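> example.struct
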């Protein structure tokens, strides 16, 4: 039996699947990941600062103009559309197979594909709040103010901060609890498109106690050695075959 057939059989026999994913799930939608050879982290940005440093809380506080320049130009892909992986994952949720999607992505593509129970560990580009008065801004409203002033400002004078988890910032508690709860009770965990090096998110997979651990990733991950099935192919192409 080839690997795709093995995956099909696992999906067929499972009724409580959790999908845990990262930036690699969206590369086939045209959004670069961080750590592939042509990912965002492969190029130093300006003044030899690594992108990892730019998307940190310290950088956001100290150099907001540079932060927003990088964030808007390198991390927001408004025209990206869900690919075959997002679409298949949403379909498997409708069929009652997938119970939750736990994602490190901030691009909203799982919801755009129709997934309902999505735990966004690192937030979403679609939510933005004034740091001072808490007013909500949509992505378009935030962008309008960014293009006007370089650092988007609320009417009250506060900076509008994207609701994304920057390096050095904690993950939202209710999201952590919900995600771990689903992972801990799943019969199958499918890990896909993630280098599994960003913590604490990557640590959540250790709560899995179920039967089948599947990894679908272009490159090697730390989860491979415990996995029942490892597929080193593009995740969209893999899910396209899981009909
Ligand atoms: P990462 O960049 O560290 O790793 C991506 C992994 O996906 C790599 O191991 C790569 O080999 C694999 N990959 C790339 N394309 C693939 C494909 N088509 N099929 C299968 N595998 C593929 O990403 P990460 O582990 O998610 O961690 C990076 C952090 O970056 C996350 O915290 C996330 O918040 C953020 N991020 C998000 C987006 C997004 O929202 N789309 C984009 C870039 C970064």
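> example.seq
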């Amino acid at each position: 039996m080839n690997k795709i057939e093995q995956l099909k059989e696992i999906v067929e026999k499972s009724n409580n699947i959790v999908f845990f994913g990262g930036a690699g799930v969206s590369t086939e939608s045209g959004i670069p990941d961080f750590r592939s050879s042509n990912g965002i982290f492969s190029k130093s940005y300006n003044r030899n600062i690594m992108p990892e440093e730019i998307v940190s809380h310290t950088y956001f506080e100290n150099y907001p103009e540079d932060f927003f320049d990088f964030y808007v130009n390198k991390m927001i892909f408004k025209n990206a559309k869900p690919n075959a992986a997002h679409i298949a994952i949403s379909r498997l949720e409708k069929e009652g197979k997938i119970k939750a999607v736990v994602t490190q992505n901030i691009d909203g593509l799982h919801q755009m594909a129709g997934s309902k129970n999505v735990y966004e560990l690192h937030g979403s580009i679609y939510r933005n709040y004034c740091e001072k008065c808490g007013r909500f801004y949509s992505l378009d409203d935030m962008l309008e103010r960014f293009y006007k002033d370089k650092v988007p400002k609320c009417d009250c004078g506060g900076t509008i901060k994207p609701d994304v988890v920057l390096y050095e910032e904690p993950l939202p508690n209710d999201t952590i609890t919900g995600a771990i709860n689903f992972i801990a009770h799943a019969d199958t965990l499918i890990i896909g498109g993630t280098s599994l090096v960003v913590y604490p998110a990557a640590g959540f997979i250790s709560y899995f106690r179920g039967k089948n651990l599947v990894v679908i990733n272009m490159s090697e991950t730390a989860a491979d050695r415990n996995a029942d099935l490892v597929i080193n192919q593009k995740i969209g192409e893999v899910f396209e075959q899981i009909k």
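> remarks
The pocket of nicotinamide-adenine-dinucleotide is lined by residues 22-24, 26-28, 31, 33-36, 39, 104-107, 122, 193-195, 197-198, 216-219, 234-235 (CB under 6 Å).
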